[in-house]
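Incident log, support desk, overnight shift.

02:14 A customer reports that sequence design results differ from what the structure should imply. Their input is reproduced verbatim below. On-call engineer (initials T.W.) acknowledged and began investigating.
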């Protein structure tokens, strides 16, 4: 007789007070309960959202509460829009790869030009690229022996574009991959366990479909997160995690070069500053710059070509006396004057490089913080292809398509069925519609009403996403009986 069907045998208990009914091997039941379904999806969802996130470095001075809030914001994005986080990880990896290629080219060129004088021992890897792109290299502008030239004298992180500038000038520190990984809090074992759990849910969903058993809305939504999380794990696997102490660049070259890079960059404290810079007109001022053109502090003014003046003369001819972002505030103060003087010094010390396209055409070389959301304006090395323009709409299309696949699944009410279908279709088409509408706007094919319509469309987009998440849970109140049946063999896979 098979062990699974062994008959119960009454035997005497050890103390002789009664009988105990026993059995041999017993197979797992071919059913599951609501709690097990809910807990399994929630655990998988939490692991995918939290452990896959690899955020950039936070500025010095950010307390635990601020850091927690920033992580929570990205966790919410991972909960409601995982494909956007996946897109972020892809762009960051592409930027890191491109940076590694360009930096290693600089090393080879410098080795040829300088020969034995080059003592660099470490070629760059993807770990270096991620570390540099996440704010791993900073200028310390707090020099007690010299006048301040950056407001509040903070640590100023370099963007990926800024790090490439430093590499071309030969000032990049020679650090090893092990040095960077020692700063990282990443745990490969923890991530591997999370991948196993996520893979199990993926296998379970495939098995249920193959066995003609229905998937719940919660499983479909969790499946979308699992697919995105697996992609994030792969893209971010080599990215350092929770690095708190960056590498500080030092030397006599730091002050003039930092001043030049600061004035060449749109300094953003938040995304609201980015919107302000785009919205306000650009006033003109005169600055003694022998090379003619330098973008100004915060990206809110530009410089007219004037005759050079002796170093140390801080006379400035103003054609606009007020900061357009902060009306009523003087545009030039002592700190600004010092920075402009250093910029003049830097434009002479680095004259050939200051006029090069690498420096002039950079989008952002430094910032007060390195934003996680990738964009050219915040200093990413954007891929030289049209792929990013199509990748985000494709990601939203696939995410929406997974939910559209539940078109004929059971819904507790007709209203919920209709709302699910409309929301899923809206998400699937939103990315492509946005790309097309922006192109039409830039080509002048639509009027100024488009930004308002896009804002309203965004509100509906958020509402659709929120509904899909909420419906995943409220639909558990009424499910087909088959939703609680499980293929027997999946019970023997280790999972939570």
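02:41 Re-run completed on a clean worker. Output:
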């Amino acid at each position: 007789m098979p062990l699974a069907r062994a008959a119960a045998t009454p035997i005497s208990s050890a103390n002789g007070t009664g009988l105990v009914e026993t059995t041999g091997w017993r197979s797992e039941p071919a059913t599951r309960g609501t709690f097990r379904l809910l807990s399994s999806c929630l655990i998988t969802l939490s692991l995918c959202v939290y452990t896959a996130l690899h955020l950039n470095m936070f500025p010095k001075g950010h307390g635990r509460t601020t850091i927690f809030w920033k992580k929570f914001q990205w966790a919410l994005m991972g909960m409601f829009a995982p494909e956007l986080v996946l897109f972020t990880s892809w762009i960051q990896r592409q930027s890191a790869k491109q940076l590694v290629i360009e930096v290693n080219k600089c090393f080879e060129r410098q080795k040829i030009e300088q020969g034995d004088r080059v003592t660099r021992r470490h070629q760059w890897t993807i770990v270096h690229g991620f570390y540099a792109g996440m704010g791993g290299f900073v200028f310390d502008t707090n020099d007690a022996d010299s006048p301040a030239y950056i407001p509040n004298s903070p640590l100023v992180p370099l963007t990926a574009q800024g790090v490439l500038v430093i590499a071309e000038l030969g000032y990049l520190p020679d650090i090893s991959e092990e040095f960077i990984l020692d700063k990282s809090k990443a745990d490969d074992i923890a991530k591997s366990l999370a991948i196993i759990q996520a893979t199990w849910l993926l296998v379970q969903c495939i098995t249920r479909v193959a066995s003609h058993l229905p998937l719940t809305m919660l499983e479909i939504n969790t499946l979308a997160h699992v697919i995105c999380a697996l992609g994030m794990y792969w893209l971010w696997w080599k990215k350092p995690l929770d690095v708190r102490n960056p590498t500080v660049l030092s030397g006599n070259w730091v002050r003039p070069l930092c001043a030049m890079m600061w004035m060449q960059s749109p300094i953003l404290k938040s995304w609201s500053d980015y919107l302000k810079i785009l919205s306000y007109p650009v006033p003109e001022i005169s600055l003694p710059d022998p090379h003619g053109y330098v973008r100004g502090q915060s990206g809110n003014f530009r410089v007219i070509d004037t005759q050079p003046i002796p170093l140390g003369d801080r006379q400035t001819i103003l054609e606009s006396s007020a900061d357009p972002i902060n009306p009523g505030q003087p545009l030039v103060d002592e700190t600004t004057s010092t920075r402009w003087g250093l910029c003049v010094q830097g434009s002479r010390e680095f004259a050939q490089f200051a006029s090069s396209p690498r420096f002039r055409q950079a989008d952002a070389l430094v910032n007060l913080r390195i934003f996680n959301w990738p964009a050219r304006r915040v200093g990413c090395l954007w891929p030289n292809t049209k792929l990013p323009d199509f990748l985000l709409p494709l990601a939203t299309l696939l995410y929406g398509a997974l939910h559209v696949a539940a078109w004929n699944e059971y819904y507790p009410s007709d209203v919920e069925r209709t709302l699910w279908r409309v929301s899923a279709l809206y998400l699937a088409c939103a990315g492509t519609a946005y790309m097309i509408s922006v192109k039409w706007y830039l080509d002048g094919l639509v009027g100024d009403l488009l930004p308002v319509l896009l804002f309203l469309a965004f509100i509906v987009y958020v509402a659709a996403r929120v509904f899909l998440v909420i419906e995943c849970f409220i639909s558990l109140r009424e499910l087909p009986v088959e939703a609680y049946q499980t293929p027997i063999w999946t019970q023997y896979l280790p999972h939570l």
